[in-house]
Specification:
It is globular and about 50 Å long. The longest helix has 30 residues. By secondary structure, it is mainly α. The mean pLDDT is 92. The chain is 71% helix and 0% strand.
C-alpha cells in the first residue's frame, strides 16, 4: 500500500520553477558535453579502460566537465526534492529482491577480480570514474530530470517510466563511439538498470545510495572485461539477465500501480 501523499509548498528561493522542458534541456546539455569531449578524445569505446591514459581522456575528463555543469545548474536553480524526498516511499518484495541481486552481482565481481593484475594508476582512475558516473548520471537522471517530470500532477509511474526511457536513450551515443549494434541492446540494459537504481533512491528517500550503487556497479563492470575470469564473468552476465527480466516485470507493475503523484502540491 502506498503512503499518503505529502504536501510540499514551493520554496520562494527557486530561480525558475521545475519543469519537463528545463529538466530535459539540462539532460541534453549534459549528454552533449560528456559525449562531445569523449568523442574529441578519439578513443574507441572498447578501449576506454585499456589503460589509465585512455580512461582519463575518454571518461574522467568528460565526467568532470559534466559534473561541473550539473553542480552549476543545482546552484542556480535551487530546485527542491532533488537530493532528498520528503518521505520514504514504499517498496515491495520484488523491489527488494532486485536491489539484493544488484548488490550481490557487484560483490561477486569485486571478490573475484584479479586485483593484483590491475595497474595501480588504472585502478585509481577507474575508481574516480565510478565516483563521477555515480554522481553525474544519477543527478542528471534521477535527480534533475526526475524532478522535472514530477510536475503538473504527473503520476509517479509515468515520471519513473520517462526517467527510465531517458536513461536508456542517454547511451545512444555509445553506438557511434564504437559499440556498434551491441549498443542497441545496451539501451534496454541501461534503461532497466536505471529503474533498479531508482528503487535505491525510493527505498532510502535519498539519491546518494543510488549514486553509490551506480558507481560501484560501473567500477566492477569496467574491471571485469580484463581482470575477471571467464567463468565468473559468465555467471555475472547470467545474473544481470535475471535482474533485467525481473526489472522489466517490476517496471510494468510499477507503472500500472503508481497512478498518483508521489507528493501532492509538488510543482
Amino acid at each position: 500500500m502506498n503512503e499518503p501523499n505529502v504536501a510540499i509548498a514551493p520554496p520562494p528561493a527557486w530561480r525558475f520553477s521545475p519543469s519537463v522542458a528545463i529538466g530535459t534541456l539540462c539532460l541534453i546539455t549534459y549528454i552533449a558535453v560528456f559525449y562531445g569531449i569523449a568523442q574529441a578524445s578519439g578513443i574507441d569505446y572498447g578501449e576506454w579502460f585499456a589503460n589509465a591514459n585512455n580512461a582519463i581522456h575518454s571518461a574522467l575528463i568528460p565526467l568532470v566537465a559534466g559534473s561541473l555543469l550539473l553542480i552549476t545548474f543545482l546552484v542556480l536553480s535551487r530546485w527542491n526534492v532533488v537530493w532528498r524526498d520528503p518521505v520514504r516511499l514504499p517498496t515491495n518484495r520484488l523491489h527488494a529482491t532486485l536491489m539484493y541481486l544488484f548488490v550481490g552481482t557487484i560483490l561477486l565481481r569485486l571478490v573475484f577480480i584479479k586485483w593484483g593484475e590491475v595497474p595501480a594508476d588504472l585502478l585509481l582512475v577507474v575508481i574516480a570514474v565510478g565516483i563521477g558516473v555515480g554522481f553525474a548520471e544519477e543527478m542528471a537522471l534521477r535527480g534533475v530530470f526526475l524532478r522535472g517530470v514530477r510536475t503538473n500532477g504527473r503520476s509517479e509511474g509515468r515520471a519513473v517510466l520517462w526517467t527510465t526511457i531517458a536513461f536508456g536513450l542517454l547511451h545512444i551515443p555509445n553506438i557511434f563511439l564504437g559499440t556498434g549494434l551491441i549498443g542497441i541492446a545496451q539501451l534496454l540494459l541501461a534503461a532497466l538498470t536505471g529503474f533498479v537504481l531508482y528503487l535505491f533512491r525510493r527505498r532510502f528517500a535519498w539519491i546518494v545510495p543510488a549514486m553509490i550503487a551506480h558507481g560501484i556497479w560501473d567500477i566492477s563492470v569496467f574491471l571485469s572485461k580484463d581482470y575477471l575470469s571467464p567463468a565468473i564473468n559468465t555467471l555475472t552476465i547470467a545474473l544481470t539477465a535475471v535482474i533485467q527480466l525481473l526489472a522489466l516485470i517490476a517496471l510494468v507493475q510499477f507503472v500500472r500501480s503508481e497512478r498518483e503523484p508521489a507528493f501532492s502540491m509538488i510543482q
